[in-house]
């Protein structure tokens, strides 16, 4: 039940690669969609490493850098057939100092360079990247904002924290609403079998909501 004043932005994307099918012995004459998808994935990993090497770090977060992760890859039909199609799903989680759109645009420029090169061998070669989920912007609330004082009072916890996941708070903040995150449970129990929220955490959450009601009831809105 710690007040959360910072979150990473997140962008989930899909990249599709169209190459040319053929017998595996013709790997230098055809264009393998899997091989090209591999190059794109390695570019994403290298770009993440470059951000770290360039000192793009925010120690409030764990890990303190923007992360790029490929979580699902599909392609090919047999070991002796050059794959004419491959696609992969990836996500980009950015700290406040990094711009999601900048990294995605750099990736698309690299994709365009690969297209121009491989279309000389196979004119139908194509790379397409689309949104799997609209981007969620980061959250970076100042400690001096009124919302932080409010959440500290109703939660009974003055310690502030940041998280590597994303919630709607970043979207509200982007529209000018002071925002913070606070609630029961832990990300350590999320996205796995039998995820749960401990009973004592639910009790703390109910107490915080009661405190919020009391706090708001004391305000004269006239």
Word description of this protein:
With 222 residues, the chain is α+β, with helices and mostly antiparallel strands. The chain has two domains: 8-136, Alpha-Beta Plaits (2-Layer Sandwich); 139-217, no CATH class. It contains five helices and nine strands; from the N terminus they run βββαβββαββαβαα. The strands form three sheets. The protein has a four-stranded antiparallel β-sheet with strand order 4-6-2-7, covered by helices on one side. It has a three-stranded mixed β-sheet with strand order 8-1-9. Helix 1 (33-53) packs antiparallel against helix 2 (100-118) and helix 3 (146-155) crosses helix 5 (199-217). The chain is elongated, with a radius of gyration of 23 Å.
- Describe the main β-sheet briefly: 4 strands, antiparallel
How much helix, percentage-wise, in residues? 25-40%
- By CATH, the architecture of the largest domain is named 2-Layer Sandwich
Number of strands: 9
* Helix-strand topology string: EEEHEEEHEEHEHH
Which structural class do you get from the secondary structure elements? alpha+beta
CATH class of the largest domain: Alpha Beta
Write down the overall geometry: elongated
Any idea of the CATH topology of the largest domain?
Answer: Alpha-Beta Plaits
* Average residue pLDDT: 94
Q: Percent of residues in beta strands? A: 15-25%
Q: Alpha-carbon distance between the termini?
A: 32 Å
Count of folded domains: 2
Spatial order of the strands in the main sheet?
4-6-2-7
Helix count, DSSP H or I runs of 4 or more residues: 5
Low-confidence stretches: none
